[in-house]
Write a structure and sequence with these properties.
The structure is a homotetramer. In chain A, helix 3 packs across helix 5 and helix 6 runs parallel beside helix 9. The first copy, chain A, has 2 domains: 162 residues, Beta-lactamase, CATH 3.40.710.10; 134 residues, DD-peptidase/beta-lactamase superfamily (Beta-lactamase, 3-Layer(aba) Sandwich), CATH 3.40.710. In chain A, the strands form 3 sheets. A 5-stranded antiparallel β-sheet of chain A has the order 3-2-9-8-7. A 3-stranded antiparallel β-sheet of chain A has the order 4-6-5. A two-stranded antiparallel ribbon of chain A has the order 1-10. In chain A, 63% of the residues are buried. In chain A, a hairpin with a 4-residue loop joins strand 7 and strand 8. The longest helix of chain A has 17 residues. Chain A is globular and about 55 Å long. Chain A is built from 14 helices and 10 strands. By secondary structure, chain A is of the alpha+beta class. Chains in contact: A-B, A-D, B-C, C-D. Chains A and B meet through helix 12 and helix 13 of A and helix 12 and helix 13 of B.
C-alpha cells in the first residue's frame, strides 16, 4: 500500500468529487428544526496523519453540530477524572438496540450498556458534573475541545441546545429512569442541561480531526507531544468506538469500514486509523440507523484505498 | 515494538509459565458430561506468524472440543457458497444478549443478529446443508478444516456430539423458532444434527492456529499461497469476530485484548492479529460470559507485549 | 331482568338472526389448511341453563375444531391429578403477550404465565402425560370430554392433528425451550403429540356447552348431580378464563362481554355465566387478537340482554 | 347463602378478630418516609351493602394514603369527560409486568396498557388536566371524592405528595417517555404534579367504601339515587379492576378473591361485589406484588363466607 501524503491527497480529492455527484444522500435529521435546516448537499472531509499532514476536501471548514461525537471526548474527560471507576456507572458492551432504547436499562437496573448510547453518555456527563454547577462542567468540556483542536473559536450552538432541551423528552425519560436507580448523582435537569449543551458543540471536519489526533497516536498529541491519555487508554477508547460507536449499526460499520468511529445525528463521523490518521467526515443525510449515509461510504472508500482497515490490509 | 520470532518465542514462553501458576482458572462448562471431565489445569497456546513461524507453549497439541470456534469456519464456507445472500438469513450486529437468547429472535422475526450466536450459527449451518444429507454437509466441513490445518487426522468427537444432541433443547427451541419464520430451509433435525457435530470437532491449539492463517494474511494461506477467500472477505470475517465473537462479552474482549477472536465453551479461543499472526489458546475454565478465563488473559498479555492490538500499538 | 327460559329462547333466536346477516365476519385462520376450509358464514350458539334447559341457534350441531378451548378441560384434568402442585409448572397471571410468545418464557425461566397460552397448555399436557404413553393420556382426555358432554361420538379430527404436528414449529420451540429449563418431564415429541391431538378434538356448540355445565354450577353436573370438581375449583377455573382466556384480548373480552370465556382459533368460544348458564358459540372468522369476531359479539349481546355480566346487571 | 346484614356483621367481626392476631403481616412500603411510618399492626374494614347497611371492623375510620386506589376515581372522571376517546390514550389489557415497567411502553410506542399501571394512570391524569391549571384539576378530583363519599373533610396529605414528587424519578421517566411519543398533552411537571397529589389523598375504609358504592349498584348512588355513571360503564370499570387492578398480581387476586378490586401501596384495597356491596380494607403490610397482604386475605375470607365471588357461589 501507498501511504504517502501525495497518495492520501489524491484519494481524498477523489472521494470529495465522488460524493459531490451522488444522488443517494440519506435523510437529514428532522427532530429538531435547527438540524433540519442544514443543506443536504454538504460534504466535508479532513484527514490528519500522524506526521501532521492535513488533507481536506469539500466543506471541511463548515461547522456542524457534532452531537453524539462529543461522547468520545466526554468519555475521555470522565476517564481522566475517575479512571476505571467510571465502569461502575456504565458498561462497555454493544447494546443491540436503538440509541435511545429504555428497555435495556430496565433489564440492567439503570446501568447503561456503554458510554455511546444516549443513556450511557448521560451517565458519563453526570460523572463529569460531579456536584459542580452545570456551567462549570460545560466550561471544562469546551476548554478541552479547544485545547485538543488548538482552536479557541469552538463554541456551543445555543439555538441547537435550547431546541434539544425543549424536545428532549426521551432523554429526560432515560435520565429520570437512571436517577430512580441512583445511577445519576446530580439533579436530573443539571445533568441533562450539560448533556444537551455538549451535544450542541459546533465544529468543522478540520477541527474534529485535529481534536482526535491523540487517539491515532498512542494517546499523544503529535504536534505538541502532550500525552492526553495513556497509550492503553487511547486503544481502549478506540475499541469502544469500534464496538459501540454507531448504535445498532456498529457491526455494519466495522464490517464495511473497519475503523473505530463515532457518528452524530448532525451527519458527522469521526474515525481513527490507529497509528495512521485521525479522520472527520460530514454529510447531513442519515441512513436508517441514524448514521451519515455518505459519511460512511466516504470512510469505507478511504479505508479501502489507503489500506487502513484495522482488520487487515 | 520488537516483532522478531525470538521475541515472540520469549513472550509465549513467559505466558505459558505465568498461566501455569495462576490459581484463578474459571469454571469448566458442566452442561454436558464430556466437557466437564476436562482437566482444569490444562493450558495451551500456539502462535503462527505470517512468515510461517510456529511458536507454541503448554498443552498446544492436546485436542479439545472447539465448540463455537467452528462457527468461524462455517461462516467462511457459507459465504463461499452463497456470498452476500447469506445476510438474508442472518445479521451482523452484536446481540447485546447471552449466546442462547431467544428474545431477540422474537423481536426480529426469526432472523438471528449475527453468525456467532447459536441461532445465527444454526442458520449458517442450514445454508451449508442446502438440501443435502447431513453427512454430506458434515463431510464438507470436516474436509475444509483438514485442508486448512493441513492435517487429515482432525475429526469429530462423536461422544460430545451425541451428548449435545441429547441435551440441546435450547438449541432445538431456537431452530424450531427460526423454522416457524421460514428462516431455516432444511428439516430441523438435519440442521441441528450438522450443527451439533461441527461444534464437536476436536482440535489442538496448533491445528486451530494453522487453520486460521488465511484470516491473518489477506485471505491467503501463507504456506501454499492458496487464496481461501478474497482479502476483503477475510477483513470482514475479522470484523464480525471483533464485534460478535464473545457473545455478551465481546465489548470486554475488544476493550482488553484488542484482537478479533472467537471463543468456544470448550475453553478455546481463536484470535487473529491481522497481517501478523494466527493465534489459538486453550484453558477449559470459563468466566461468567462463557469465555475461557485464562485464554482471555493470555491473549491480553500477548497482544500487549507484542504490540498487536488493532486499536494502536 | 327476565331470566325465564322463554326470554332466553327469544334472545338466542334474535342473536342467531342478527349474526346471520352481518357482513363483518373476521378472517378464518389460515395457518393450517384444515382450518382454512371452513365456511366463513357458519354461526352456531348453544346455551344450557343450570335448570337443564337447552336453547340453540344456527349451526349449533355442526362440529368444529375446538382448538384452545380444550385447554379448559386439560386444566381441569391436571388439577384433578396433582391439585395445587400444578402451579409449580405454570402460573396464573395474564401474559400481556400474544398467545405464542416466547419472550415471557425467557424472563421467567421456562415457567409459562398461565395455562391458556400455548406454552402453559403444553406444560399442563405434560403433567397429564406424566410418564404414560401418549395414546393413554389422549384416551383419558377424550373419555373425560365424552363423559362431560354425555356423548360418546366426540372424537379427534386426525387430519387437523396431523396438520398441526407438521407445521407446529412455534409450539415445538416453546416445548423445547421449557424442556431446557426442565419444566417438561416427558419427551418433547410425546407432550407435543398429545397437545396437538387434544386441540384437534371436534365438537359442536351443543356438545361444548354440555361439557362445561359444571363450571356454571358449583362444579357439579346439574343433570346427574355428579361433582366434577369442588365448587371452589370451578370458581377458580372461571377466574383464570376471565383473566387469561383470550390471549392478548382478555381485557377487551372482560370489558365488553363480562363473562369468563375461552376461545379457540377454530372460531369457537366457551363462556360461563356462573350460577346461570353454560354457553358455546361458533363463527370461524377471527379478529386481530385471534378470537372469533362474531362469537364475541354474540356473547356480548347475550350477556347484555340477559343481564348476565358478572360485573353487574 | 345467607346475605342478611346480621350475617354480614358476624363475618366482618370474625375477620377483624382473625386479622388482629395474624403474625404474617407483609412489609410496609418504604420508598417514601411518610408511608414507612405507618403502624404495621393496623387493620380496618368497611362494607356497605346496596341497601345502605354499613358494617365496619378494626381501624375503619383511620385515614391512610389511598395511593393507586385513586386511579379508579380518576378513570371514572376521565371517562365522564371524554368517553371512549380515552382509549386512544391508554389500553385496557392486563400488563403482565410490574406496576412501573417501562418496557411495555417501548413496545407499544408510548401507549400504556391499562389505566391502573402507573403510566396509564398518568395518561388518564393528563386527560383530566386537559389544559387547565394543576390546582383546578386537583380541585375537581377532590370535589368528586368528597361528593361520592358525602364527606367534605377528605383531603390531600401534602407531606406525602411532596415526598413522592421529590423521589418519583421512575414516574418522571414514564411521563417523559410518553411525552416523547406525544401521548401526553400537558407539561410533564403539571401532569405529574396532579398525579402525585391525587395519589396522596387520605381516606378511611369507611370513606372509600362510601365513595365506591356506585360501582356495586349499576352506576347509581343508592342513598341519593344519583346516577354517577351509566350501568354499562360501572360494569366496565369493574371489569378493568378485575383484570388489571393488582399489577402483576391481578390473576392471583381474581383466582383467590374473585372480586373486582384495586390496591394501593398505602395498604388499602377497594373491592366491589356487584349488586351486593362496596368494600374497603386496609392493612399497611404489602406482599411481593405490592398489594396489602392481610387486605387480600380479609377479602378472600369475606368473599368466601358471604358467597360473593363473581365466579360462582
Amino acid at each position: 500500500m501507498n501511504h504517502s501524503p501525495a497518495h492520501l491527497e489524491t484519494v481524498v480529492r477523489e472521494i470529495a468529487a465522488e460524493m459531490a455527484v451522488r444522488t443517494d444522500r440519506g435523510k437529514v435529521a428532522s427532530y429538531i428544526p435547527e438540524l433540519a435546516n442544514v443543506d443536504i448537499d454538504a460534504f466535508g472531509i479532513a484527514v490528519i496523519d500522524t506526521d501532521g499532514n492535513v488533507v481536506t476536501g469539500g466543506d471541511s471548514d463548515v461547522q456542524f453540530s457534532i452531537q453524539s461525537i462529543s461522547k468520545v471526548f466526554t468519555l475521555t474527560i470522565a476517564l481522566g477524572m475517575v479512571g476505571d471507576h467510571l465502569w461502575q456507572h456504565v458498561g462497555r458492551e454493544p447494546s443491540g438496540s436503538p440509541f435511545n432504547s429504555i428497555v435495556q436499562l430496565e433489564r440492567e437496573e439503570g446501568v447503561p450498556r456503554n458510554p455511546f448510547i444516549n443513556a450511557g453518555a448521560i451517565a458519563v456527563t453526570d460523572v463529569i458534573l460531579s456536584g459542580h454547577e452545570p456551567r462549570v462542567a460545560l466550561g471544562e468540556i469546551l476548554r478541552f475541545m479547544r485545547f485538543l483542536a488548538q482552536d479557541q473559536s469552538i463554541k456551543i450552538d445555543e439555538k441547537v441546545a435550547a431546541s434539544e432541551q425543549r424536545t428532549g423528552f426521551r432523554n429526560a425519560a432515560l435520565a429520570n429512569y437512571m436517577k430512580s436507580f441512583s445511577v445519576l448523582q446530580n439533579p436530573v435537569e443539571y445533568t441533562l442541561g450539560v448533556y444537551f449543551h455538549h451535544c450542541a458543540i459546533a465544529m468543522s471536519c478540520r477541527q474534529l480531526a485535529m481534536a482526535a489526533r491523540f487517539l491515532a497516536n498512542k494517546g499523544r498529541d503529535p504536534s505538541t507531544g502532550f500525552q492526553v491519555v495513556q497509550a492503553e487508554r487511547a486503544r481502549r477508547i478506540n475499541a469502544i468506538m469500534l464496538t459501540c460507536g454507531h448504535y445498532d449499526g456498529s457491526g455494519e460499520f466495522a464490517y464495511r469500514v473497519g475503523l473505530p468511529g463515532k457518528s452524530g445525528v448532525g451527519g458527522g463521523i469521526l474515525a481513527i486509523a490507529p497509528g495512521k490518521a485521525s479522520i472527520a467526515v460530514w454529510s447531513p443525510g442519515l441512513d436508517d440507523s441514524g448514521n451519515s449515509h455518505l459519511g460512511r461510504i466516504a470512510l469505507e472508500t478511504l479505508a479501502k484505498r489507503m489500506g487502513w482497515s484495522i482488520f487487515g490490509a
